[in-house]
Amino acid sequence: MSDGKLAWKLSRYYLAPPARIATRARGYGLDRIPRSGGCVLAMNHLHWIDIPLVGALSPRQINYVAKIEALTFPGFGRYVAWHGTIGIHRGESDRDAVRRMREVARDGGALGLFVEGTRQHTGRPGEAQPGAAMVAIQENVPVVPIGIYGTQFWKIGNFAPCSIAVGEPVCYEGLPRGGRGYKEATADLERRLNGLFDWLEDVHRRGRPRGLTPP
């Protein structure tokens, strides 16, 4: 096995169960995540716990994109890279990272992108960056918006309940490959993520009933 497949297979046994328990994880619309084929999973980002939360609930391996510092940290970086994570230099043009991101989608993998590019400290989704839209348009694969809620309250010890809501996959094949197309798709994706976040906020307010379908 390669490209993180073995790492993900093993983590289903030793990492996913404690991640689910620690976050009291609940997922809505998980059946909307394609079981095969290239796609971009586009998520908002509130806390580092978002990564194991989504990973534990996802029915398939995710090739996350993370800041390069996470992959160069002694010891931990090798572990992160083993899971197929792509490191990117934030705030600059990183052509090698973009090439690898496109390769994942082109080769039938699920690329995981936190669309703001960094964790948000306001308690809700921030401004989306064009990375997810760019890969989706260039490789003609669907984007799957995933709203995350509850992790903004999570701390070791309080184990606040956390949930994700998966929106309908969306294709942007009709948009031009360039800045204008990326901008239009990114604005649409940002709107969808805010809608999923607001929906989850209401679901949490109602005690997180099971069996609901995200908008």
What does this structure look like?
- It is a single chain.
- The chain is of the alpha/beta class.
- The chain has a single domain (27-205), classed as Glycerol-3-phosphate (1)-acyltransferase.
- It is 40% helix and 15% strand.
- It contains eight helices and seven strands, in the order ααββαβααβαβαββα.
- It has helices at 5-14, 16-23, 50-57, 68-72, 76-82, 95-106, 131-139, 179-205; strands at 26-28, 39-43, 63-67, 86-88, 110-114, 143-149, 163-166.
- The protein has a seven-stranded mixed sheet with strand order 1-7-6-2-5-3-4, sandwiched between helices.
- Helix 2 (16-23) packs across helix 3.
- The termini are far apart.
- The mean pLDDT is 94.
Quick description:
With 215 residues, the chain is an alpha/beta fold. It is built from 8 helices and 7 strands.
Largest sheet: 7 strands, mixed
The low-confidence runs, each spanning 5 or more residues with pLDDT under 50, are none
Topology order in helix (H) and strand (E) letters:
HHEEHEHHEHEHEEH
Rg (C-alpha, Å): 16 Å
Number of domains: 1
